[in-house]
Design goal:
By secondary structure, this protein is of the alpha/beta class. It contains eight helices and six strands. A hairpin with a 2-residue loop joins strand 5 and strand 6. The structure holds uracil and iron/sulfur cluster. Iron/sulfur cluster binds next to helix 4.
């Protein structure tokens, strides 16, 4: 895992785009670099910037509950990160050039982890990683195979909080995910 730690150190000193100017912390990722399942959001928010960990605000608490419902644990059997590693001011969407500057870190993380399943959280990550014309409200919870990796777009937990009628559908996506994990990487659930 020295590769992974070297990458993390390099990322923590990164000044490749304007998002470095106002960040408090670089949010590299959290979890098990040997996990077979990766979750990818769009970018750190206020709490993430302060704490240096992805999904630790209100949306993150909901994410943890949904993960727990299907026996996933951010510190144990998954890895969580974002498209951009520094917080966009006022939580605006990361701009195209910022995503472009940062995506190399995500590519390297993915190359080292070699996940069997990638879950994208929200529209931005889904469009960037799965397909540019993704219709997130219609297509969340579907599985698409890309170069031997199963990709699933999910709703962003912050969007679920804003529209609680989406909760049942969101939970159902996690149940579908659990079945796929049992099929392609059951070791996720061992010990
Ligand atoms: N939203 C994201 O997309 N990522 C985080 O880390 C937190 C909130
Ligand atoms: Fe570097 Fe990414 Fe932070 Fe931009 S967002 S400064 S590319 S780590």
């Amino acid at each position: 895992m020295t590769d992974f730690h070297d990458l993390e150190s390099k990322c923590k000193g990164c000044t490749a785009c304007r998002l470095c100017e106002k960040r408090k912390n670089v949010v590299f990722g959290v979890g098990n670099p040997k996990a077979r399942v990766m979750f990818i959001g769009e970018g750190p928010g206020e709490q993430e910037d302060i704490q240096g960990e992805p999904f630790v605000g209100r949306a993150g608490q909901l994410l943890d509950k949904l993960l727990y419902a299907v026996d996933l644990d951010r510190r144990k059997n998954i890895y969580i990160t974002n498209i951009v590693k520094c917080r966009p001011p006022q939580n605006r969407d990361p701009q195209e050039d910022e995503q472009e500057s940062c995506i190399g870190y995500l590519r390297e993380q993915t190359r080292i982890i070699r996940p069997k399943i990638i879950v994208t959280l929200g529209r931005i990550a889904g469009m960037r990683l799965i397909k540019p014309d993704l219709r997130i409200t219609r297509e969340h919870g579907t599985l698409i195979e890309k170069k031997g990796v199963w990709m699933m777009p999910m709703l962003h937990p912050a969007a679920i909080l804003r529209n609680q009628s989406q909760m049942e559908g969101a939970l159902n996506d996690f149940l579908i995910l659990r079945e796929k994990i049992k099929e392609v990487c059951p070791e996720t659930y061992e010990n």
